[in-house]
Amino acid sequence: MTQQRYNSMKTLITNAIVVPMTTAEEHWFTGSVGIEDGKIAFVANDDRPEELKRVQRFKDEAGTNLNEIDGRGKLVMPGLVNTHTHVSMTLLRNLADDLPLMTWLTERVWPFEAHMGAEEVAVGARLGMAEMLLGGTTTLVDMYWHEAAVARAARETGIRAVLCPSFVDGPRMEEFERDLVETLAEAEGCDRLSVRIAPHAAYTCSAENLRRAVELARRHNIGIHTHVSETTDEQRIVSEQYGCTPTEYLRDAGLFDVPAMAAHCVWLSESDMDIMLSHGVAVVHNPQSNMKLASGAAPIAKMLARGLTVSIGTDGASSNNDLDMWDEMRSASFLGKLTALNTSVLPAYEILRMATVNGARAIGMEGSLGVVAEGALADLVILDVEKPHWSPRANIVSALVYSAKASDVDTVIVGGEVVVSGGRLVTGDVGVFISAAEAVQLKISCALKH
Q: Which residues of 372-391 are buried (b: 16+ CB within 10 A; e: fewer)?
């Protein structure tokens, strides 16, 4: 009912700095954005009289059925697209730090997750979605178990979500197939939810199970999302078992014959990049997780130069430890410059495109998301830019990537629905979400000690 209530109204944002992300070169202007039926009805530049007339017509036609937002001192831009996370791992936040990836997984993460059922997953998802919405992320790509529960949490909070039921070899395969069916059912009829299949990684999934995943993806006309070449350990394991790289192994299993997203990609060879480019695989860069787990630095500048689509993800809150895309953008740029020893690589606008335009492209929604343009879905973020760390604003895009913070987010709109207003979540009680997550973490931690 909430979505219908908001979508029945027209929304008008006026007097704001607009960063449309519609061109290859950065630009911004002061103007207005009209929203109707969940989409952007128009974008008007205040310097163009003919466009200002459209603003007035919109007001006149709406009459009292208008939610007008004064954007003075604020900036409106596309919502951020977090293309790789495990949202329910908020429950593991601050529990398993300063460990190598394999130790982190086998001794801390997997034992904890063994105690997580659908309800626990939903508790973690609500907390993570609240964090993301309050920080300006309007779309997430989630990889986990019990994704049907994550879907229900997404419906409650109003975030847009790509739900990716995951599997590894073993008894969880049957659970995965049940979860896939349930997740598809939850997503049906909701334009904010879509589904992909998520084999965990080359070193945890047999070729037989990977081929089964591809078969299911084709049957349901959906894509694939997986981890690729995250660590040197992964490279070694796959090389010893199969005599090839993880990318080659996944290609040979047919995983790239359907729309595919590959997270991390830290240790891709030149030929791996060529394989991904030829198959249209979208890469997801997770700089902070890769730094924290000492996995390495992905050669993102090389991938972009090659023509690969590269977007940005936070990974889960156990390996980051937050879901802050502003922080992630800044880290992506700084890490890229450091590893290349070149200050010119990964400039601010390219990073911003990775978090918006490229994120939309990676999930097959280019043009519908990641831009402020007429006809696009009304997934927008309004930031308060009248803060000390924003001033002076010599370059708006530089300020967005190098200065902006999640706490600058004032308003978030998803599909025309205002889900954050005045920096407060409209669609749920954050205090309740926090208390529930604290209780679950304590319960599972106590169980693991006994």
A: bbeebbbbbbbbbbeeeebe
pLDDT of residue 1: 32
pLDDT of residue 96: 85
Cβ(441)–Cβ(112) below 8 Å: no
- pTM recorded for the entire structure: 0.96
The whole-angstrom separation of Cα 382 and Cα 365 is 21
Are 101 and 230 in contact by the 8 Å Cβ rule? The answer is: yes
Return the residue matching tokens 């879907």.
151
Gyration radius (Cα) of the chain, Å: 21
Q: What is the DSSP code string of 266-306?
A: TT--HHHHHHHHHHTPEEEE-HHHHHHTT-----HHHHHHH
- pLDDT for 7 equals 56
- Structure-block tokens of residue 207: 């070729």
Looking at 385-445, which runs of residues are DSSP E strands?
A: 409-414, 417-421, 424-425
Each residue of 90-114: pLDDT tens digit? 999 998 898 887 888 889 888 999 9
Nearest to 415 by CA among 96, 84, 133, 122: 133
Q: CA nearest 195: which of 218, 174, 165, 172? A: 165
How many CB atoms within 10 Å of residue 69?
A: 22
Q: Which amino acid is at 316?
A: G
Contacts (Cβ under 8 Å, ≥6 apart) of 131 = 90, 317, 322, 323, 324
Alpha carbons 217 and 256: distance in angstroms, whole number: 11
pLDDT at 80: 98
Evaluate whether 66 touches 59 at the Cβ level (below 8 Å): yes
What pLDDT sits at residue 2?
39
> Low-confidence residues of the chain, pLDDT below 70?
1-8
Asked if residues 401 and 330 have their Cβ atoms less than 8 Å apart, the reply is yes
Cα 241 to Cα 10, 202, 249, 255, 355, distances in angstroms = 58, 10, 10, 18, 35
Distance of CA 74 to the CA centre of its chain: 23
- Residues 377 and 415: beta-carbon distance below 8 Å: yes
